[in-house]
Amino acid sequence: MIATLGSSLWALPEALGRRAHLLARTLLSAYRLAVGRHGLTAWQASRRVLFAQVFFTGVQALLPVCGAGLALSGIMMGVGYRTLAGWAAQRAFGDLMRLVVLTEFGPLLTALIVIGRSGTAITTELAGMRLNYEVDALEAHGVDPYAYLAAPRLFGVACANLALTICLVASTYLGCALLAPLMQGISMPIFLRDLGEAMRPGALGRSVIKALLFGLTIPVVTVYHGLTIRQDINEIPRAATRAVVGAMSAVFAIDAIVALVAHG
């Protein structure tokens, strides 16, 4: 047991180093692509992959993300507001929304949806390309796979995750405003004023930072597991599972670190 625990602890910095190396190599390939070192054709091909990734991760996930935001608004009004009303502290609902939705559940819930939809798709797609020697074929033809495969997914998921986080938070606030007239004893002008006054620039900044960090972490983890798969068809679902678990663990760890730094 001690040997297993020690090997697991020793493997952690190695795994972090491999993912950091992937991120650095992807950013370097993206820079070379942007300055034209890979040529116009490579830029056009990578741009198509980028737009396709933004469309799949962002546009096609807009409906479930907004639905999750509306469901979250029902929870906040049904549980949060009624609990505060029982304590005669309704004026604190805006602060509760800021702490729970804006800075915590908004970015976190969006990241989990992106992991479930796009994370598994990225890992499965790249793993299939690796098994079919398509990645090797790109390298044989002088195409940088990190510029063509990794960089568009990295920036596409990051941009889409930020936009989806904004949509989820906005739909949650909108849902609360729509449900407020159904609650007994709520004055809409006061309710809306409390929601607006509680939204502070620091909370907005933390939400944006978390959304960007989550959006960068998810493709790094999923691309890594897709490109490092072993030559076995049975490894594809295992790689997808490892990618989802790894991405979720990384997102929760980053969320805890940002929270500790912000409130420390």
Mass-distribution shape: elongated
| Strand residue content | under 5%
Counted up, domains total 1
First-last Cα distance: 35 Å
Helix count?
Answer: 9
**What is Rg?**
21 Å
Let me know the average pLDDT. Answer: 87
The secondary structure category is mainly alpha
Share in helix: over 70%
Q: Work out the number of β strands.
A: 0
Largest sheet: none
Element-level helix/strand string:
HHHHHHHHH
Characterise the protein shown here.
The chain has 264 residues and is mostly helical. The protein has one domain. The chain is 86% helix and 0% strand. The chain has nine helices and no strands. The chain has helices at residues 2-34, 40-59, 62-86, 93-131, 134-140, 145-179, 188-198, 201-227, 235-263. The mean pLDDT is 87.
Write out key terms for the chains shown:
mainly alpha; 9 helices; 264 residues
What does the secondary structure layout of this molecule look like, with pairings?
Blueprint: H1 2-34, H2 40-59, H3 62-86, H4 93-131, H5 134-140, H6 145-179, H7 188-198, H8 201-227, H9 235-263
Helix pairs in contact: 1-6, 2-6, 3-4, 3-6, 4-6, 4-7, 4-8, 4-9, 6-8, 8-9
Quickly describe the structure:
This protein is mostly helical and 264 residues long. It has helices at residues 2-34, 40-59, 62-86, 93-131, 134-140, 145-179, 188-198, 201-227, 235-263.
